[in-house]
């Protein structure tokens, strides 16, 4: 089983954004920070979530149980409900639906910010680099 932690940081809303991804497994501990471009804070959370999925596919980490942890209730609820009223979020949901079949078992779980410090720190690093 792999646990993935994702978070985003945005300066302004919308504004420049960065994301952090932490991958933790039995013999794996990887960290990555990524530039997310100019977007709103919610869009940044969706973008880092999608980038994490793409990274897992690229690294061929798809044949095991994966739990993605995010402190974004908007992202978690959109994925869990398979629906978003907000037209800005619908393309991210569509992308998720295209990527999800690549995984044996993919779960998403909301966690409080206090349990997402590693991904938050990486997101802030990415934002600083972007600026």
UniProtKB/TrEMBL annotation:
Instruction: Give the organism's phylogenetic lineage.
Output: Bacteria, Bacillati, Bacillota, Bacilli, Lactobacillales
Q: Which InterPro entries match?
A: RNase_H-like, RNaseH-like_sf, RNaseH_domain, RNaseH_sf
Q: Which residues form the RNase H type-1 domain?
A: 1-128
Pfam families, A to Z: RVT_3 (PF13456)
PANTHER family linked: OS05G0353850 PROTEIN, POLYNUCLEOTIDYL TRANSFERASE, RIBONUCLEASE H-LIKE SUPERFAMILY PROTEIN
Q: Which organism is it from?
A: Enterococcus wangshanyuanii
Give me the gene this protein comes from.
ebsB
**Name of the protein in question:** Cell wall enzyme EbsB
Superkingdom of source: Bacteria
């Amino acid at each position: 089983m792999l646990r993935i932690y994702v978070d985003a940081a945005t300066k302004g809303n919308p504004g420049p954004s960065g994301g952090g991804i932490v991958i933790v497994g039995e013999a794996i501990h990887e960290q990555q920070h990524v530039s997310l471009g100019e977007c709103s804070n919610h869009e940044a959370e969706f973008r880092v979530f999608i980038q994490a999925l793409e990274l897992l596919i690229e690294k061929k980490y798809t044949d095991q149980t994966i739990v993605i942890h995010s402190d974004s209730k908007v992202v978690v609820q959109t994925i869990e409900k398979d629906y978003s009223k907000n037209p800005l979020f619908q393309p991210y949901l569509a992308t998720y639906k295209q990527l999800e079949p690549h995984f044996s078992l993919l779960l998403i779980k909301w966690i409080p910010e206090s349990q997402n410090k590693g991904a938050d720190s990486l997101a802030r690093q990415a934002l600083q680099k972007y600026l």
